[in-house]
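To illustrate the input format used throughout this study, we show a single complete record. The first block contains the structure-token representation of the backbone; no residue identities are included at this stage. The design step must infer an amino acid for every position from geometry alone.
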């Protein structure tokens, strides 16, 4: 017959093992959630950087379309008027 002390020891052991398993699963869930959230925030920031770069390039293209180029003919050879 199992004594009172051994029954209590077995109960504490089972509770401890169960708690360890549950805490481990919870930690895995939290770790995965933190990883996923970090990934999404990183993608969001990357999207913002790409949009900023695209807007800057569009602005540069717009500014370059408005530039008037003055051609200086002094570097060209004179044409014969014969």
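Output of the design step:
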């Amino acid at each position: 017959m199992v004594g009172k002390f051994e029954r209590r020891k077995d109960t504490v052991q089972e509770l401890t093992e169960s708690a360890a398993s549950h805490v481990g699963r919870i930690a895995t869930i939290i770790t995965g959630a933190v990883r996923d959230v970090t990934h999404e925030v990183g993608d969001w920031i990357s999207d913002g950087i790409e949009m900023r770069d695209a807007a800057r390039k569009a602005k540069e293209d717009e500014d370059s379309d408005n530039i008037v180029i003055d051609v200086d003919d002094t570097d060209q050879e004179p044409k014969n008027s014969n």
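Structural context for interpreting the output: The CA atoms of residues 63 and 69 lie 13 Å apart. The helical segments are 4-65.
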